[in-house]
Specification:
single chain, alpha+beta, 3 strands, about 50% helix, rod-shaped
Length: about 140
């Protein structure tokens, strides 16, 4: 019976270590999901800003609702430049036609604890948002 002294202490120490590792991994994954959500919000806002750039001359002459592609791309890029929470953003691609606009945002997230467990490349994030101009009801 005296041989088992300190066994509970070792078990609790091991449990605390496992909880610390699990908590660190959870924080890394939470940060990745949070950065992806931020990039998706930035892409959505940029696509909506670009979709508001209708060709006014064409609309007034024919009533057709189409984008002015150059103005749509300018507005989308301007919206991306004004975003606050885009620390992970590395690259953007904006393509507009008369029918709609596509905004693609790429970023990376460097892990801390997961990087120690599996050294390698950071997590790459890619989000895409599309929008089309629409006539008001």
């Amino acid at each position: 019976m005296n041989d088992e002294r300190g066994t509970i202490t070792l078990w609790i120490l091991g449990l605390c270590l496992m909880m610390l590792l699990l908590g660190g991994i959870s924080l890394d994954l939470w940060r990745a999901f949070s950065e992806r959500r931020s990039l998706a919000s930035a892409a959505d806002a940029a696509a909506l800003a670009g979709a508001a750039a209708i060709d006014e001359g064409l609309f007034r002459s024919t009533g057709a609702v189409q984008l002015d592609p150059r103005e749509a791309e300018r507005r989308a890029r301007s919206s991306l430049a004004r975003q606050f929470d885009t620390d992970a953003m590395r690259d953007t691609l904006v393509r507009a036609t008369g029918d709609g606009i596509v905004v693609e945002v790429r970023g990376v997230v460097d892990f801390t604890l997961l990087h120690l467990a599996s050294p390698g490349e950071p997590l790459e994030i890619r989000v895409e948002a599309t929008a089309q101009p629409a006539r008001s009801p």
